[in-house]
Amino acid sequence: MIVCGCDLGSATGKAVLLKGDKILSWAVVKSARNPEITAQQVLEEALDKAGLVKSEIHYVVGTGYGRTGVSFIQDNMSEITCHARGAHWMHPNVRTVVDIGGQDCKVIALDEAGKVLEFGMNDKCAAGTGRFFEAMARVLDCTMSELSTLALNSANPANITKQCSVFAESEVVTMINNGVKAEDIAAGIHDSIARRIHAMTYKIGIKTDVVITGGCARNEALTKSLEKQLGVSIHQLTFNPQIAGALGAALLARDRAEKRLIKP
């Protein structure tokens, strides 16, 4: 029985095709203006990779900002539940998930079974999100990957004090004009985001193992900065951490499809 999880975020759409406990294929595409278009594109790419057609999918669960109103999605779940389920499947010892998406970030506490115990979320400001990184990379005239590399080469990180993304951008421009090295500014940007995420953990605490999911999870400079702020080692996931939400949705789709099969 083949099922699908579809994570429709603000920056990218992700889809995972699952059969039993095996990932058949996955895909990531840039978000279109309409979530329906994003969903169709990412599903078609995942189907092509697996050599399947849409009619072979038994159940589809959606998550992410664009999950409602997509024609072929049969059920939807919160991103928090899906990221927790996906991260736990990839790394069963995980107890804390830090998810950094395009326009929000979350810290999620899990129990041994992968059930969500508590969470903290920043969804009212772009600071600490992928959008913030994009804005800062634009100001420094570099790519996201180059921003991380710059930060790793810093010996004296700058102190970015503004939490608002707009004010932080102005602060960075002032530093550039004052001759502060680009690598020190880049390191300061990563440290400011790590401090913001650390503040979100005060309420729920940090229990190991800790993993990062979302599009920023492969930012090595951010991982190192977070390890310093949180005082723990961060474990690398075995699969692409960007698909954790879609994978969690696929696992929930499998649960629902199995319930439908045994329903009298």
UniProtKB/TrEMBL annotation:
Its cofactor is [4Fe-4S] cluster. CDD domains: ASKHA_NBD_BcrAD_BadFG_HgdC_HadI. GO terms for molecular function: iron-sulfur cluster binding; metal ion binding. The keyword Metal-binding applies. Pfam families: BcrAD_BadFG (PF01869). This is CoA-substrate-specific enzyme activase. The keyword tRNA processing does not apply. NCBIfam families: CoA_E_activ. InterPro entries: ATPase_BadF, ATPase_NBD, CoA_E_activase_dom, Dehydratase_Activator_Redct. Residues 5-253 form the ATPase BadF/BadG/BcrA/BcrD type domain. PANTHER family: BIFUNCTIONAL PROTEIN [INCLUDES 2-HYDROXYACYL-COA DEHYDRATASE (N-TER) AND ITS ACTIVATOR DOMAIN (C_TERM), BIFUNCTIONAL PROTEIN [INCLUDES 2-HYDROXYACYL-COA DEHYDRATASE (N-TER) AND ITS ACTIVATOR DOMAIN (C_TERM)-RELATED. Keywords: Iron, Iron-sulfur, Metal-binding.
